[in-house]
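User: I'm putting together notes for a lab meeting next week and I want to include a structural view of one of the chains we've been expressing. I don't have a solved structure, so I'd like a prediction I can at least talk through. The sequence is below, exactly as it appears in our construct file.
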Amino acid sequence: MAPPPVRPARPADFPALCPMLLDLGFVEDEGALAARFPSFCTRDDFALLVAEDAEGRLLGYAAVHDYGPHLRSGDSQRTAKLDDLYTVPDARRQGVARLLMHAVEDWARARPLRYVFWYANDHSAAPAYERMGYRSADAGQEGYRFFEIDFGEANTRTPHPLRGS
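Assistant: Thanks for the context. Below is the predicted structure for the 165-residue chain, given as structure tokens.
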């Protein structure tokens, strides 16, 4: 069986994505969320990616935001933050999150970005990222881990706490 395709979200995906967005929490106003959703599907600095099965059912999504050029270093330290990664419960541990993360990495390389970072809770999210092969560091906040992908050459990598970013 072929892996589910990953594609950019479309405004018409909102009804299927809304329960996922609500499940992650921090939605203050569902009407405002619905109103702003279409613009996030077309923003140049944002990727909203969805994975869907052969029948077109959405299995999960990833949301990543390019911060743009850095004031001091321009594009050489260009960074994005993974805001969300979500897989519907009945599709978990089936490779959907890994496919979405590969799509995030492809998007980041195409921009090109130097770093993608995110925070994940110790309870369920951090262990899932670690199973995918990502390494975590102390986030400086109890109950969370810090993750980062550095797309630079190995000999030019500077650990996040030493970069001052």
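A couple of points you could mention at the meeting. Residues 6-163 form a domain with the Aminopeptidase fold (CATH 3.40.630.30). DSSP finds five helices and seven strands in the chain.

User: Perfect, that's what I needed.
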